[in-house]
Amino acid sequence: MPEYAKQSHSPITISLCMIVKNEEATIERCLQSVDQIADEIIIVDTGSTDKTKELVSQFTNKIFDFEWIDDFAAARNYAFSKATQEYILWMDADDVFLSQDLQQLVELKATLNREFDVVSMLYNLTFDQFRKVISQLRRSRIVKREKDFRWIGAVHEYLEVSGNHLETTIAVTHKPLGHDSERNLKIYERMQLKGEVFSPRDLYYFANELRDHKLYNQAIEYYQKFLATRQGWVEDNIGACARLADCYYQLQDVENELKSIYLSFQYDTPRADFCCRLGFYHLNNNQLKQAIFWYKLATQLDIENSSWGLVNYRCATWLPHIQLCVCYSRIGDYKLAYEHNEIAAKFIPDEPLIQHNRKLLQEQLGN
Q1: What is the CATH number of domain 273-367?
Q2: Using one digit for the tens of pLDDT, what is the confidence trace for 239-268?
């Protein structure tokens, strides 16, 4: 029996709460993936003009209209206010539970100890061609309704929670088909025009929007403003360093790109993706000793699935081994090159590059 369960226990009840707008392409897929879990489905529509409501009506009659006021937190809090069950689960329309995660969720619902106020889950963001997770983070996903937890933030809102917290390995999978790339940037720009004071979190996410729109110099300005507040969450601080490095890379400012990478080390021990970036820099400059140092360090770092920050699984698994294969090949150590290629193969056995490297290295080793 799971550690979070009691011996004698009745299943918890769950309200699924969602905000939607023009989600006809994905909403059925989402609701089908969670239909057997939700005792109640609350849908708050913020202005759909497509068939979203019609499709949702197959699953629930609890559909509410909410006038859009450029505030995601307000819409989500309104959705939460309509819930009547013991716990609230939130999702976006382009999220799903895959079958293995749904099975775990069924078990959790049947056995969860009501002493827990918050249940967090993993959030699978991107996948490679082999359907393996590339990037992932963790989010508070199920909360006790009576605690009246609130969403905060007009854009890139977050759920402020407290109390007894259970971390699970259940994952919600993000499967977008597209998005309104201008929406969030426009909201921030309207906030600016109104003279609203940006919180540190707003500064960070506004900078992200600017970077995504290739406004690199403006993005740099706001990442620097964010870091200067010294009030950011550590994972956002590290994310800002990574995105600063991205911006400087695009501007071909190598010196500041490197400074941004090293700046991340002030906030935590080195992360695998920063180590790989440094390895790549030194490899491109034929500084093989330094490249090997950073790539080896990337292979020695633990992967924490309890991390609330973004985890880059490529840099934490196969990528540094492939690059070490390249480095050792260049210095003529074909035995070590072969060993690292085979380690990478454990993660991506069907990758053609693995087979290519194996054949060349076996010829060098006389096998």
Answers
A1: 1.25.40.10
A2: 999 999 999 999 999 999 999 999 999 999
Cα–Cα separations (whole angstroms), residue 292 to 100, 277, 331? 38, 12, 11
Whether residue 112 contacts residue 12, with contact meaning beta carbons closer than 8 Å, is answered with yes
- What CATH architecture applies to the domain 14-174? Alpha-Beta Complex (3.90)
Strand 165-174 to strand 133-144: parallel, antiparallel, or no bridges (unpaired)?
A: unpaired
How does DSSP assign 151-190, residue by residue?
Answer: EE-SSS-EEE--SSEEEEEEEEEE--S---TTHHHHHHHH
pLDDT tens-digit profile of 85-130?
A: 999 999 999 999 999 999 999 999 999 999 999 999 999 999 988 7
Nearest to 204 by CA among 174, 179, 241: 241
Amino acid at 45: D
Position 1 scores a pLDDT of 46
Q: Compute the distance between CA of residue 108 and CA of residue 104 in angstroms, rounded to an integer.
A: 6
pTM of the model: 0.88
Indicate left, alpha or beta for 350 from its phi (over 0: left) and psi (-120 to 50: alpha).
alpha
Question: Do 40 and 15 meet the contact criterion of CB atoms below 8 Å apart?
Answer: yes
Which residues, listed in sequence order, are joined to residue 23 by a DSSP beta bridge? none
Alpha-carbon span 365 to 367, nearest angstrom: 6
Residue in this structure with the two tokens 């393996």, named with its chain if needed: 132
CATH of domain 180-268: 1.25.40.10
Cβ–Cβ < 8 Å for 87, 142:
yes
Domain ranges of the chain: 14-174, 180-268, 273-367
pLDDT in tens, 206-219: 999 999 999 999 99
